[in-house]
Each structure stands twice: as C-alpha cells, then as structure tokens.
Amino acid sequence: MTALFLGALPFGIASPAIAAPTGSISGKVTVPSGVDATTISVLVWSNSMSKEAKPNASGQFSLPDLEPGQYVVYFRESSEPRYVLATYYGGYTPAEATRVEVAAGTAVSGINQTLSPGGRIKGKVTAPEGTEWGDVVVTASDGDHTAWQMIRSEDKSFDLGPLMPGAYIVSFSSHEGRSPFLKTSYPGVSDPAQATKIRVTDGSVVTGIDQVLKKSAVISGSISGGTFYGSVVARPANDLTKVTIQTAVKAGAYTIGGLEAGAYKLEFQSDNYDLVSMWHGSVPTSASSPSITVAAAQTVSGIADAPVRAAVISGSFPTLDAGNSVQVLAVDGSVIKHAQYYSGKEYTVSGLFPGAYKVQFNREDYDTYRTAQEGQFYNNVPESSGVGSATTITLAPGQSASNINASNRVGGTLTGKVVGSNGSPLSEVPIRIYSKNAVLTARHARTAGDGTFKVTGLSTGLYFVSADAEGQSGPIFSGNVLAEANARSVATAVGQNTDLGTLSYATATAGKQGFDDVPLGAQFQDEIQWLADKGISTGWQAGDGSRTYQPLTPVNRDAMAAFMYRLSGKPDFTAPTASPFKDLPTGAQFFKEITWLADKGISTGWEEADKSKTYRPLQPVNRDAMAAFMYRLAGEPAFTAPKVSPFVDVPVGAQFYKEITWLAAQGISTGWAEAGNTKSFRPLQPVNRDAMAAFMFRYNTKFGAN
Questions:
Q1: Alpha helices in 349-482 (DSSP H)
Q2: What is the strand order of the sheet 341-343 is part of?
Q3: Long-range contacts for 473-477 (Cβ within 8 Å, ≥24 apart)?
Q4: What are φ and ψ of residue 86, in 5° steps?
Q5: CATH architecture of the region 2-114
Q6: 655-666 as b/e, with b when 16 or more CB fall inside 10 Å?
Q7: Buried b vs exposed e over 369-389: b needs ≥16 C-beta within 10 Å?
Q8: Which of 125, 163, 480, 484 is the one with CA 20 to 30 A from 437?
Q9: Which one, of 483, 491, 490, 501, lies nearest residue 465 by Cα?
Q10: What's the CA gap between 151 and 181, in Å, rounded?
Q11: 219 phi, psi to nearest 5 deg
Q12: Secondary structure letter of residue 474 according to DSSP
C-alpha cells in the first residue's frame, strides 16, 4: 500500500436541510494516460457543508445542490495503488487553493484540473532471516512530503509514489519493532543526514534503489504469571529519554528487533487496569532496573518478568468544585500520577506500583486552573507545611486505599487592579500569583473590564504577583516595579482577602531589591529596606533567586557584631592574629567584626571560671544587652538615669538600667504599651532581626552613623 500525505480533509461536515436556491460546481479532470478517470474523487467543502462526486470516463464531473458560499475543491485518487498526485484547485496545498464562489441559483463551470503523475521510486529489499515482511516499511521523505509502503509482495519490491518533484531520503524501518534488521537509509547508512537523496521529477520513475538490510541485535522475553497487555520500550541505558524500539507484548511474549550493539533498559507500558506499568525486574523505576547488553547482531532471549498487581487510591472532596484535582506523589514530592477518574465528588487513582505515597489536592499549576479550595496534602495538611508533613500511604500489591479525602478549607483571596501607562484600566490581563520556591502553588486570573482582578484558593503565606499586559512595557510586579528581582511579596491568609492595590504602568519603577520574606505592609519594612540599601544586612540568597531576611529570627551575637561594624561604616581595623575569646577561632565567621567590637569596648564578653574569656557568638542577643551595645557604640555619652523607671519590668538598679533608659530617652526603643498606661521593655527577650533593623535605623537617625 502506498500513501501520500498532503493535508487533512475536513470530512463529516453535516449538510443542513436546503431551504434556499442552491448552486453547483462542474468541470473536467484530465488524467495521465493509463489512469481511469472514474477512480478520481472530487471533493468540495465550505464552512457549512461538504460533498463528493466521481467523474465519468471522460473526466466530466458535477456537484449540484451546493449552498451559497466559498468552496475548496480537492482532487484525489480513491483506489490503490495511486498514480496521480492529489491536488487542490489552484495548487498542491490548502494555502494555494483557489476558493470557488457559489451564489444562490448559479452554476459555476470550468473548474478544470489536470492531474500530474508525479514521480516514483522503485527498488527491492533484501532482509535478514526471520524478518516478517509485512513489518518492513519503506519511506520516502523530502521534509515536506512523505510516501510510505509496507512491503508485502513476494519479490520484496517496493514502488513509492506518486511523489511531488523533489529530493527524497529513502528509509527502511520495522513497523512493529520486532524484525531483526537495523533501521537504514539508502544506500545503507544509519544516519539519515548521510543518506543519498533521490531526485524525482514529474513523470519520472527512478529504479534500482535496492537495499540490503543488516541484521540487528534482538531481545526477546516474556511476562508470565498474569495476562499482560501493552507494549515494551527499549531505551538506551545512557539516555533513557530516547525510545529506540517499541513493540507490543502479545500473549505475554515480545520480541524487540532493530537494536544496535549496546546496553538497554526495558520499560513495560501496561494497558491493564489491574497491572502496573513497570521496568524490567518488575521494579517501578529505571534506576533499579538491570540493563541488558547486546552485541552486534546478537539475540538475547529468555528475559523473564512477572506482572505486578496495581494498587488504587480513592477518596472524595467535601465540595463539588470544578477546579478540584488530585495528584499522587512519591515521598520526595515528585508527581507520580494524576487522578484518571472523577465522578461528582469522588476520585480514583489506579495503576499504582506497591509502595509509599503522599497525596495532594488542588495543587495544579496552569493558566486556566481555578479553585476556591486551598492546596493541601492528605491528611488535612496545608500546602505551606510542605509535603514532608503529609501522611504517608503505604500500599501492597493489589491493595485499595479508600477514604483518602480532601478537607474543606477555602483559601484566601487576593485582589487588585491593573492600569496602563495612560492611567486607564486594562482588561483581560493575565495575572499570576506565585512563590519563587514553588512551595505554594501558582494561581491565575485575568482582569475584568475595570482592570480589577480576584485570585482565590490561596494558602497562608507570601506570594508574588505579576501582570503581563499586551502593549505595555512588559510585566509589572507587586511593589509596582518592572523588574521581577525587585518585586515585593504579599502576605495572604486562608479565609481572608488581601488587597494589593493598583499596579500602574504610569507610576511603576525598576525598584530596588528587598527581601522576599518582608511583604508589603510588614512591620518595620522601611527600616529593613534601609538596612539592605546601606549594606548593613545582606540577608540570605537562595539558588532560586529569592532573598530572605528572616525578620522574626533572633539576632545572634556574632551577627550583632557584623551589624554594628557595618553601621559604623566598616572602619579600618586589622583583626588580631590570636583570638581574645576561647570560643572564637580566628577563622570563624565575623571574626574581624567581633574582635573590632571587643577592641572598641562595645562587648566585654564573659569571664569564665578559668579566667578565660568567651564571646558566645551563636547565643541570641537579649534586649538589655542590645541596649548596652548601642550605648557603648554611641561612645557612652553622658546620661543621668531617671530615678523612676519608665518600664514596669526594668527596676531601678537592674543590670543595664542606665543603658536601657538611655535607649528609651533617645527614642530608639519605645517598648510595649501595657495595661494601666504603663510600658514594658522585656529585657530578657531576644532581639528579633526586624526589631534590630528598627533600632539601627533610629540610632542612625539620631547619631548619623551611616
């Protein structure tokens, strides 16, 4: 059989009842000598109907009862083998076709077409013993047009055509992947790029394109112990993304031909509901599957595997939400399978290999995904807690785990508005709400006519927002900036709405990089940004491009030294060759800054029982000690401590009383308002990094250190 693929035909367009005057198309088909004109099909179609006719022996055809409209006319041979090129009226491709206008009550005539014989390529194939001849496929391709033939004739010959004029590569391959010969391109090369191209012209017949096929290596085996339906794929062991040969498993047996010498791994793809897809060795992954090595033309047989009964996970959703989704994960969080079957609020995930799994709900990430339900893991674990917190489900062969149900937890919402460079609202702008580390699933929306948007199903956490409007200066991000690296995060909470405000192309700037875990509107956000801009704190840079400050983490004593050194403008200082503190080796992080602090008398450390001194670099700084550090950093200015303490929890005479009250007098620390119009300082509470930023900003405002 020979086939030439020139385009798809839109058959099956229903013809409605004719209620108005119709028209017709007629003409003549001229065919090459020896071709029967009655074997030609003439097809026409418009947006509303299609019709087919056969010419008479002289080539005349007519297509009556056509509704008014523009028609494409197509000519093709309807019998095998074919001896003329299929063509459109006006050209060989749909783009070249001339549309024929048919008006009500008119007869369009003269739609004549001369069909070309094209070119042909002929030859004969010699194949190794054991080749199944119905399995040998010969293909001719010039990149745009392809003709192919399965060799069935007793003399093993082929006749490819009709072919459009051009230069063709002729290739020989196995249709079922079972025959013992190597895929070859004429004149006997494995790489089609090295093939000799066969040039054909209209009416030409190129003969003598004969090919001797080389014997390949063969792997054969069986899957016994159950009825396995499906296919087996041989993949090179050094490149598992490549499919070398794929063939069917029939009655539990298979033969894979066409293999070059090398090492392969076999993947079995099951069509059975109750048996899993697997790798050779009856294992779930390629990593644990043994390789099979074959030499050139070698046959390796007796490869035996046993089928594995599939496990099933099923459950339900508490709400019928069009956006509900289920994914089964490996324990490391990688997606194994999606739910294949939904029925109302019920789902089923079948075909699972025995083992340990996690399940996640409503965590799809694509542009059209919408759900009000927060992403979560089984059992009632919000996605922000991470897959490690999810309950593990362990399945035996053939086991069904039911009642793996989602919880009803409506997520938060985030609203906002997008306006263009002229200040006008922008509609249909795609909105993406995402986290850089992908812990939180991205959600999507589009702006309404007034430029507003609302995104649902959000977890409690920090997100970034992007809007990418056509005709503007590119994407715009939360924080009203045009550079993603400088975008500001937005805090959301389950069951609550967060309003982002307006993203305006008219007022957006490039911005400056902040910290991803310090969202818009966060306490001390300006002071923390000042700390970053001055280089006093660099935070932590992650591989995914995120930059964090960890605002609620206590400040350790080593980091405090670094902050103060930088706040003072990084003065010239040569660190000592011997450490003044026995718990601070010379190569320790912030060694220079800590020894500078000691040299200036800002920190004295602790004197231990053996008279040595320690700094305790990884110990958090308490608020009373922080006050002492700052007082000494300021040069221990003259100050008379008040006779009555301004703080209920700092009695007169307490350690660092003078320094704490000095800090309060400078407005560097305001403390906490308590009942009865009193204030507390909480001296033994560690200083968090956000509060440290505020202290340093106020110190700098007062004393101009930076």
A1: none
A2: 341-343, 346-352, 311-316, 400-401
A3: 473/421, 473/505, 476/418, 476/503, 476/504, 476/505, 476/508, 477/503
A4: -65, 145
A5: Sandwich (2.60)
A6: ebbbbbbbbbeb
A7: bebbbbbbbbeebbbbeebee
A8: 480
A9: 490
A10: 14
A11: -120, 130
A12: S
**Res 13: pLDDT:** 45
Considering only the top CATH level, what class is 311-401?
mainly beta
Q: Which residue's structure tokens are 């459950």? A: 315
* CA separation for the pair 561, 706 (Å, rounded): 16
SS3 57: coil
Instruction: Say yes or no: do domains 2-114 and 412-512 share a fold.
Output: yes
Res 4 pLDDT > 60: no
CB 477 within 8 A of CB 501: no
User: In 3D, which of 511, 591, 598, 514 has the Cα closest to residue 558?
Assistant: 591
**Is the bond leading into 187 cis (omega within 30 degrees of zero)?**
yes
Neighbouring C-alpha atoms within 13 Å toward the C-beta of 359? 28
Please tell me the distance from the alpha carbon of residue 145 to that of residue 40, in angstroms, as a whole number: 21
Q: What is the mean pLDDT of residues 434-456?
A: 93
**CATH architecture for the domain at 119-212:** Sandwich (2.60)
8 A C-beta contact, residue 503 and residue 418: yes
> 42-91, pLDDT tens digit by residue?
999 999 999 999 999 999 999 999 999 999 999 999 988 899 999 999 99
**Where would I find the H helices in 502-622?**
525-533, 557-567, 591-599
| DSSP-derived secondary structure letter, 383 | G
Amino acid (one-letter) located at 427: S
How does 302-317 read in b/e, with b if 16+ C-beta sit within 10 Å? ebebebbebbbbbbbb
Q: Please give the angle made by the CA atoms of 36, 37 and 39, to the nearest 5 degrees.
A: 75
Q: Could you give the C-alpha distances from 76 to 60, 117, 150, 667, in angstroms and in order?
A: 15, 12, 21, 91
Q: With contact defined as beta carbons under 8 Å apart, do 373 and 410 qualify?
A: yes
Nearest to 175, CA basis, from 142, 156, 151, 208: 151
Nearest-angstrom CA–CA distance, 143 and 577: 73
For the packed helices 689-703 and 557-567, what is the interaxial angle rounded to 10 degrees?
30
Structural tokens at position 419 = 């306006």
Query: Do residues 84 and 117 touch, judged by C-beta distance below 8 A?
Result: yes
Distance CA(256)–CA(179), nearest Å, equals: 7
Taking only the tens place, the pLDDT of each residue in 229-253 is 999 999 999 999 888 899 999 989 9
Report the C-alpha gap between 94 and 493 in whole angstroms: 55
Closest CA to 138 of 117, 113, 120, 165: 120
Where helices occur in 444-534 by DSSP H, the ranges are 525-533
DSSP 8-state class, residue 310: P
> What are the boundaries of each domain within the chain?
2-114, 119-212, 217-305, 311-401, 412-512, 557-703
The Cα–Cα gap between 55 and 68 comes to 23
User: Quick one: angle between helices 689-703 and 623-633, nearest 10?
Assistant: 20
Q: Report yes or no: 472 and 505 within 8 Å, Cβ to Cβ.
A: yes
Assigned CATH topology for domain 412-512 = Immunoglobulin-like (2.60.40)
Token pair listed for 251? 């009655």
* Strand partners for 189: 185
Q: Is the separation of the CB atoms in 303 and 297 below 8 Å?
A: no
> Strands (DSSP E) along 175-291, which ranges?
184-185, 198-200, 205-206, 211-212, 217-223, 230-236, 245-249, 253-259, 262-270, 278-279
- Which pLDDT tens digit goes with each residue over 606-656? 989 998 999 999 999 999 999 999 999 999 999 999 999 999 999 999 999
| CA gap 344, 644 in Å, rounded | 70
Evaluate the omega torsion of the peptide bond into residue 32 and state whether it is cis, within 30 degrees of 0.
no
Please report the beta strands in 344-441, taking only residues with DSSP state E, as ranges in sequence order. Answer: 346-352, 355-361, 376-377, 381-382, 393-395, 400-401, 412-419, 430-434
Q: Return all residues near 657 (Cβ < 8 A) that are at least 6 apart.
A: 641, 645, 650, 651
What's the DSSP call for residue 690?
H
Q: At 507, is the secondary structure helix, strand, or coil?
A: coil
The CATH number of the structural domain formed by 217-305 is: 2.60.40.1120
